[in-house]
Design goal:
The protein has about 400 residues and is of the alpha/beta class. The chain is about 35% helix and about 15% strand. It has two domains: about 1-105 and about 170-200 and about 375-394, Rossmann fold (3-Layer(aba) Sandwich), CATH 3.40.50; about 215-375, Rossmann fold. It has helices spanning about 15-30, 65-80, 95-100, 135-140, 150-170, 180-185, 230-235, 255-265, 280-290, 305-310, 345-355, 355-375, 375-394; strands spanning about 1-5, 35-40, 50-55, 80-85, 105, 120, 125, 170-175, 195, 215-220, 245-250, 270-275, 290-295, 315-320, 335-340.
Length: about 400
């Protein structure tokens, strides 16, 4: 089987979806699958193996004549049995490829069916459960779930309508979130086209007892430097931590410079460590060193892969409650769920957990057990290959 992947970046940093692509491609090769990756040229390539540069992968407009020629040249060169599109803002390429071979579109986030992008209301802060429609334009204004620019909202609304039309025409859709499955069905996607795959977390990559040279305990925030991922909520947890605990902030984002300035001004550098773009090996070490992993996302997070990886390292997680997070984080068993509307409670909950090492160890053991039962990478690859085979046989 020959599988051609489309993903906007070759860098494993910048989110769980990016690392997910880097995790599964080598696993597919080990199973005897020929794979190649089509990507943009905006970052130095870290992909090992056959790769193709496609400049219009991020564009949200029909392909130019040059782009169409380039797309067909890539397809003619690799001759895939199927195309797997993981992340591409340019949904105009999907129907072009569908004329040649089956297209599997992976849905990681809410953008394909939500013109606000997050399925989250700001007034009040809560998850949205509406299907896409004209009423969304009013919600953008009344609920604060869109842009402050009404023209931008209109443009996004039209593109979302077009994207949904494309999704309804594709061979198959995949996701790792039951929340996304429900939203796709709610927006008119045939249930038979949607494949729910088990969310995977790779096995640990470093020795299990690696601790910082300081010997201090640590809380690891894995959401990156963005407000949406709760970076400022994470920083506020520092006040609630015991004196022997540090706060570790990992991942990149558009608020990195603001975070660094805030830490310098407040003189917090002795208790806060920042890793803006960890390598896969550095991520593994950070998970091992952490006593607790936090993900205070201020939106309707559909999966939370970066935090779920902590379960493989026997680490408990505390996060805001969303339907997607609840797929793998069981309150009181392998971590703690905090209602999003009670976000002021988050720092105190983190402090309470760090003051109870016995409970942390118990939750960590449960996390490792749940990972072994439900979230091993091999289980995901088995389900992915079954998805490919079942559709191709039809």
């Amino acid at each position: 089987m020959r599988v051609l992947f489309f993903h906007e970046t070759t860098s494993p940093s910048g989110g769980g979806a990016n690392r997910h692509v880097h995790d599964i491609l080598p696993k597919l090769r080990q199973r005897g699958i020929s794979v190649a990756l089509v990507h943009c040229r905006d970052t130095p390539s870290r992909f090992s193996g056959t790769g193709y540069i496609f400049d219009e992968l991020k564009e949200v407009r029909p392909l130019s004549q040059k782009g169409t020629s380039r797309l067909h040249a890539i397809l003619d060169d690799f001759r895939p049995d199927l195309v797997q599109i993981h992340r591409s803002s340019n949904f105009f390429i999907d129907p072009l490829i569908e004329k040649i071979c089956p297209v599997f579109r992976f849905i990681h986030y809410h953008f394909p069916y939500c013109s606000g992008g997050k399925m989250t209301w700001k007034f009040p802060l809560s998850a949205c459960h509406q299907a896409h429609g004209n009423h969304c334009l009013l919600s953008h204004f009344l609920r604060g779930c869109g842009s402050a620019n009404p023209l931008l909202n209109l443009w996004r609304h039209r593109k979302t309508t077009e994207f949904l039309g494309v999704l309804r025409s594709l061979t198959a859709l995949q996701t790792m979130s039951a929340e996304i499955v429900n939203n796709l069905i709610h927006n008119g996607i045939e249930k038979e086209k949607i494949h729910l795959l088990p969310a995977p977390a790779p096995a640990p990559t470093h020795r299990p007892h690696a601790k910082p040279a300081t010997g201090r305990r640590s809380v690891l925030h894995v959401g990156g430097m963005t407000s949406r991922k709760g970076i400022w909520v994470a920083i506020r947890t520092l006040r609630a931590l015991p004196d022997d605990c540090d706060l570790v902030l990992a991942g990149d984002g558009n608020e990195l410079s603001s975070v660094e300035s805030h830490i310098r001004r407040r003189g917090l550098g002795d208790r806060v460590r920042i890793y803006p773009a960890p390598s896969p090996e550095e991520w593994g070490l950070l998970y091992h060193q952490a006593d607790l992993v936090i993900l205070p996302c201020l939106w309707n997070e559909p999966t939370g892969l970066a935090a779920m990886r902590a379960t493989a390292y026997a680490k408990p997680v505390i996060a805001f409650r969303t339907n997607g997070i609840q797929d793998w984080l069981k309150d009181g068993i392998n971590g703690t769920l905090v209602p999003m509307e009670k976000r002021n409670l988050f720092p105190s909950k983190v402090g309470e957990m760090m003051r109870n090492p016995a409970e942390l160890r118990k939750m960590g053991d449960n996390a490792r057990k749940l990972w072994q039962e439900n979230h091993r990478m091999d289980s995901h690859i088995d389900a992915l290959l079954h998805c490919y085979q079942s559709v191709l046989e039809k």
